Amino acid sequence: MASGTALVPSSAARLEIYGRGGEASARCYQCATCSSVCELATEDHTFPRRQMLWTQWGLRDRLAGDPGIWLCHQCNDCTVRCPRDARPGDIMQVARGMAIEELAFPRFVGHLVGRARTTWVLLLGIPFLFWTLLVYLHNGLTPAAGGDWAYAEIVPHWMIYSVYFPTFFVLAGVPALVGASRAWKKWGEGRKRAGSFVTNLIAVLTEIVVHRRFGKCGVGKGRKWGHFFIFWGFILAAVTSGFLVVWLYAYDLELPLFSYRCPGAAGPTCHLPLDNWMKIMGNIGAVSLVLGGVLILINRLSPGQPAGKSMAFDNLLLAVVLLVIATGVGAEVGRLVLNPGVAMWIYIVHLSSVLCLFLSVPYSKFAHMVYRTLALVHERMVTAAKS
Amino acid sequence: MDKIGLFVCTGCEIGKAIDVDALEEAGRDKGAKQFVKHACLCNPEGVALIQKAIDGGEVDAVAIAACSNRAKVAEFSFDRTKTPVERIALREQVVWTHPGGEEDTQMLAADLVRMGVAKVGRMTLPKKLDDTLDDTVLVVGGGLAGLTAANAAAGMGHPVVLVEKGEQLGGYMAGLKDVLPETPPYDRLHSNTVAALVKEVEASKQIKVLTRGTIKSITGQPGMFEVSLEANGVAQSFKAGAIVQATGSRPYDATKLGHLGYGKSPNVLTAQELDAQLGAGALKRPSDGKLPGRVLFVQCAGSRDANHLPYCSSECCATTLRQVAAIHRDHPEIECAVVYKDMRAPGQLEHFYLAVQSKPNSLFARGTIDEVQVKGDGLCARVKDSILGDELQLDADLVVLAVGMCPNSADGEAIRQVRDAKARIAKNESEEQVRQGKETVDKLGHHEGTEILNLVYRQGPDLPVLRYAFPDSHYICFPYETRRTGVYAAGTVRAPMDAAQATEDGFGAAMKAVQCISAAKRSEAVHPRAGDIGVAEFFLQRCTQCKRCTEECPFGTLNEDVKGTPEYNPWRCRRCGICLGSCPERIISFPDYSVDAIATAIKAMEVPDETEEKPRILAFLCENDALPALDEAAARGMKWNPWIRVIPVRCLGAINTVWIADSLSSGVDGVLMLGCKSGDDYQCHYIRGSELCKTRMTNVRETLSRLTLEPERVQIHEIGRNEFARIPEIFDAFAETITSVGPNPYKGF
Amino acid sequence: MSQPLMIVGAGIAGVTSAAEAAEAGREVILVEKDPSVGGRVLRSHHYFPKMCPPSCGMEINTRRLENNPRVTVKVRTTVKRAEPVGKGWRVTLERQPDYVNQNCTACGECSKVCPAKVPDPFNLKLSEVPAIRLPHGEAWPRRFVLDRTACPAGCTKCVEVCTYKAIDLDAKPTEETVEVSAVVLATGWRPYAKEKLVELGGGLYPDVIANVELERLTAPAGPTGGKILRPSNGQAPKKVAFVQCAGSRDRNHLPYCSAVCCLASLKQATYVKNQIPDAEVTIYYIDRRTPGRNEDVLTKTTALEGVRLVKGKVGKVTRRDDGTLALRVEDVDRGQLLEATADLVVLATGMVPNLADGALFGVERDPDGFGLDDLSRGLFVAGVARRPEDVAASVRDATGAAAKAIVAAGRSA
User: Fold this and answer.
1) Distance from CA of B349 to the nearest CA of C (A)
2) Could you tell me how many CB contacts below 8 A there are between chain A and chain C?
3) What is the C-alpha separation between B441 and B415, in angstroms, rounded?
4) Is the ipTM beyond the 0.95 threshold?
């Protein structure tokens, strides 16, 4: 009898993965065309051929615990070239969903988001009710008088930031960190890493900002730019909001940066004119978000696109992102052209979708920000350890 | 023949390169009564010239000195039953391959003419045999191949007797509910139609079905076999013209696969045992009669395995696919795991493989299983060398072993050896003979009792088998040929195959059987000398009962009477001439190919004495491959040594050693033999010709050294039809050898 | 006596059907579009498993046709029209012009003076031949053929040199109509075009060749006189890679398995080793499909030193600066992604049935273009026109098809 422990295949796990959208992988006959056409697979992390096999054998842990699934950028070169239409790209997508769910802290939230197909109402509804309630308590949901008004008249900035900062840094940040450390530990099992985390992280980040790997994709090129613009859109949006805070609470300080002052003593209720550089930065962000969103939508919807089959899990993320973009822009434009009542509600939806986005970061596909970055670092360090 | 006409063509450079008129003397010298030359003998005028001479009775044998006997065949196809014809290849063997106008070239041409004329002078006319021949096709085995063959033969207008040893027809297929798809879209099971075929056969007026039948004996030859058998307890006998053996195969003995759990647990089945369950619509775990949760299929169980069956049975993968599909149709919830070395679904089966694998509960994995363990009433297997990189532990409720197939053949030659050995022991002539006899009996005794056809042939009661006990000839171009004329194997007894192939085989074997009868009726030979109307003649008064001919005939043509005198069966004969080559008394002849004719040709060549320093080399070329290769070399303008005189032979096995002796004693300096490859991958179309020639020549070389002649003077080379470039190489190299060993000391004696 | 049978296509399958039926006493018309019989098999150097030359068996088969008075062979002839008549067929045949007629003695004088050179179709256009020539060394019928389109305007050199009045440059196509009782389609196959495999370098790099081309490179009568050389530089390769399933078992190309490529590559591996003993040969495969006793070919070849079989389909072939080729492939058994190198890459391309171009006689075809028997119309399909298979199987089926045709003819008589 052979020695050593042997893997035990699980039919249940296999069927679960099929159920999550990986059923085509039953067709895989392990020719490995997928791995060999994948530009991102490396000698140490070959995919997606193994992942197909793990799926067939229902080796759930192997699949979800594999850093390789994060190195995949979903180009779908594999799916296009697969001689049997076994759609390896889909399996990588499903695997990431399962990984996020498993690494999530607390787990039940992970499952909640993981089952977005049924739970999306809650995920969007709760933040909406929350904000509606908050605004109601603040001013009874009465729109601004009109004229040259500002959203701050309805929802003061202090309220926004006192909600978002804790959600972002605590409710999202902590689980993200926990998930990250879980992943880091799991990937480390039986794998030697070498080099400093920080230097590798920096190297990885510089790679990310230019989307170097994304560029290698064959058929999925369109997705690169969509992702690129959204990525930068969010960064700009975040930076703008960051600066705004600083400015608002120090608006009367004479800082070289902030040459602008509110007319008269209007104080915090005043808003920035369009030519303000901060406004401009924010708007560039908004535009690039819109651009990215549109690109991704086109890429998704256009027939003949090899994009992996969409699944509720990542559709949720996409929906929320698009909602944030739409309502954000809508609110800005709305303030100028729409009646204040409508604009107010757009704004409230905007605020709640942002909240939903923040909250779901560690549990939704958004978590790939964390895990992919981490996986890239892991890969560098493993390779370093080998040489 | 005493009115030989010599017709020389001067076309194709012949006239320019040699002095054609000078050939007249050479021809007349060997008995040519007429000499005609023509600028283009193959054109209608030239042909008419010859035809006129024949019709006018001016000539009774024709020597055509023009191009190779492989060129202008249609033009020079005169009625061989009335006039022997010999072609002399002046174009290929002289003018295309040697410089024109030179003495050596002229001598070569003259020699070839002398030899050709002399040879045709010794040819005789073939006698048409007028036996009354029977049309019946005997089909042995009532499985898919046998049924198809019977139906096809009947469809071609022949009466058929179908003998089945079992109770009813249909064979293994009869037990199957589903069969593999043979028509698009190839993605689902088809229902089994063998029952309909059985009905059709049983209903046919032309087919007589005999069940529970065993053959007691078959005597005679194609067109006139005498079959006596016992069917359903009743003895009967009848005539048959040809035989199809479709005795099928049996699964490999699974009891030898204990390591895979067979015999250890009732829940380990062979694919055939599973088929029985599926056929009865009763899939279950034998131990408790419950439906299995997971079924594990172990591919290549005892196949592709040096310790069991080294070969692949080629249908086990397909069978497993069929079984998985059937299970999933009735019980989609059952998981079917298939562990294979290589999944073999050739051709359109690939579509079916994909369809079966696409089901969520089918699992196909490459790997090997060394052992299946019994765990309570469950089973457990470890999958090694899986492409996971790790070992895999696979529990299963039911394990199915895809075992290979072994042909239901009988090793006729082995049985014959055993019988001879026993006879020798009984005779008890010498210690040594008895000891050898006992050895043989120990080694091969188990073959006795496996007889199927019970042919009353000197060389044994059944088809000779080749590798892995399959009784075909392992030809690629002629897959149905066996070594018993008029007996054709079909279906899984011939080679491992699936149902679709077995059906084709049935049709094909029927075709060959019908064809064999038809050829016999035209008194023609079958493959490979199809259409040859000359049969061998035995001058038995001089026979010494040495039995070489009966032993060496590759096709079991000859029987022996009690004294050991050969009994010739012309319809078994393939006209290869190996018997002629084997006979030390030179008593076997064909009308256009005899010891005498060739010997005369050899004597007809002029051997200059050693002072002239013109050695002479005789080259026997097999007409199947070596001679065509020479023609191609010639057509490509290759040149070679002019001392060489080529004599075409039917096969290296058809070279009688007396020809070597004659030539050497008449001063020829060396003898070359070019023929087909022998050994396992033999290319000899008479299977053993080249091989026999080699063994004979070792004896010849011994004789040479006794005569103080250098053994290098006699050489054999194997050459392929496509190796034309080697012809000049071999010729010139041999010429050099001869130069270096010096002239034949027997010159001038 | 019923009407003759018609066999369309004189490759190994068609020749077999014709010879088998004729030797059973049937009249047979064998129709071939090329100027000589033998089809694809004669373009192979050796057959597996016995590694013997196809011309050996074809020698016997052509003799069978030649000596049999019941066989009529019509070369350079195609089926123009076919309509069912009663239970048989009325077929209109079109024969290309007899620029060279039956007077030809194959003496070769015309080739010597012919000024025009054309790519040699027999050598898969890997070499050139005179416009007027013997189709190939083993050609039967043994008559020269002229590629009239290549003639320089007004050139009559061949006509002048031919003393047998065998050449007529003004010959016209001819037509004839025959009635036959049953038909066997043995129209054979063509290799899947390597140019469709750009990702594998097919058509991009000269050193990426198709398996059928390697057969010609090994044949003594081939463009290199039987030497295996890299097309790019005429050097003998040191590292040869075989890419299995090049366009087979692939929904993007041919969805079926061509059933012979594994054995063909194993056979060709022995070609390489016999000529270049120190060459490294690697065969990249999905499954090693060597059914039946052909398993021996796998066993023998894998036992050769310097021959390696790797499970993994090659995904990409690129050319390095030094001219060698790089193959990207995963060694599945080791789970390793490789960047393998080779200086000759052989694509084991599959077989495409010629019937895929159009249904002769309106024969029913499967989605891949393989023909299906039609007993009711006395229409049968044999060889690779029917299913992907090797020579022995083609001969087996072709013999069977002859029987089917005779049965059908009997019913129609």
Assistant:
1) 8
2) 62
3) 9
4) no
